[in-house]
Amino acid sequence: MQAGQRRAQLVADVGEGRGRDWEELFDGFPAAADWPAAAYWREPAEHYPGAKVVLTVRDPDRWYDSVSETIFASALAERRPTPPHRRVTRRLVAWRAPDFALYPRMAGATVMDRVFDGRIDDRAHVLAVFERHVAEVKAAIPPDRLLVFDVRQG
Q1: Closest by alpha carbon to 144, among 55, 53, 56?
Q2: Which of 15, 93, 110, 152 would disulfide-bridge 39, Cβ 3.0–4.6 Å?
Q3: Closest by Cα among 72, 85, 105 to 5
Q4: What ranges do the domains of the chain cover?
Q5: Using CA atoms, how far apart are residues 30 and 150, in angstroms rounded to an integer?
Q6: In 10 A of CB 7, how many CB atoms?
Q7: Any coiled-coil ranges, and where (predicted)?
Q8: Which range, of 8-12, 87-91, 99-103, averages the lowest pLDDT?
Q9: Higher local confidence (pLDDT), 25 or 140
């Protein structure tokens, strides 16, 4: 199994409740950023007590507008029935790049289901999750380990 495929499999397994081998998952990486790592911020922060945590904050409404036009749009498209010609294309791509086939499963298990309870099209719910996440990180991580970066400040 190739390294990329193995890592995607590990992340999917974590999202689906099988295993939490942070050493294997982060092997070879000095840091983790963005999703899907952000879905698991608490566990690695506890596992690596000396690690710094960067919390990126922004205007919640602008963030939702952006993510709903990009990442969430793709995830919602995954829920719709796939036309036959796209199924064939996906099978061919998955045959040539097996980790590609794991990506929708990994994203669903980690971000869409674990973080947003599958309700990514519910703006009020997603914004509440977003704001709760910011508050929880600020409450859980000691100030000497936490850098809060507000993108509005440049």
Answers
A1: 53
A2: 110
A3: 105
A4: 3-153
A5: 23
A6: 20
A7: none
A8: 99-103
A9: 140
